[in-house]
Amino acid sequence: MLKKLLRKKSRGDASIAGLSIFMLILISLVLMFTVFYKIIINRVQDVQDDVTLSNLAVYKNIDLDVLGQDGILKISDPNDAFETFKRHLETNMKLDSNLNGLSGSVADGQVTVDEFTIYNVKGNIVDIWTYSSNNHMFTESTADMSLGIVKTSDNSIVKNTSVHATIKFNTDILFGQKKETSVSVDTDIVK
After folding, report:
1. Are strands 112-122 and 162-172 parallel, antiparallel or unpaired?
2. What is the 8-class DSSP label of residue 191?
3. pTM for this one?
4. What residues does each domain of the chain span?
5. Which of 12, 60, 74, 180 sits at 20 to 30 Å (Cα–Cα) from 129?
6. In angstroms, rounded to a whole number, what is the distance separating the alpha carbons of residues 70 and 159?
């Protein structure tokens, strides 16, 4: 009986085999894209950690005299703070001194620092130092928290001395294509 069933030819055998092969290819492609998407998401999360660590390194530039006298966290020299940020970003993201990606880096090409802002809080007054990538200089402004809420460009409320950074870089995705990626991080050492 089994031999009789095996010898019997049914109509549609070729179409079922063709459909099966097509479905296997389709499922394989979906799985491949899902895996590559997860890899890209993990890379971006790793870069977010790298930027967070670079932001936290800036707190080494706290003015210890002001901290000792008034108990206030204040980053007094924004240029030194920015250099500290860049040095740590180079190490964390495997970049050269011009912020170009080295071998093994997530960044393909140059990383640009689109925003680097320091929020020094003293009572209700916030001194804001904002780096301009156009002229490579800092501008200073002041905000009064009693007049309204002060927020970073990521919409985080500034309560303590904080650092905000936004970087952009290209990363490789599927089949040699590149995608511009932006990572934006706020850090508040008191939280």
Report:
1. antiparallel
2. -
3. 0.78
4. 30-188
5. 180
6. 17
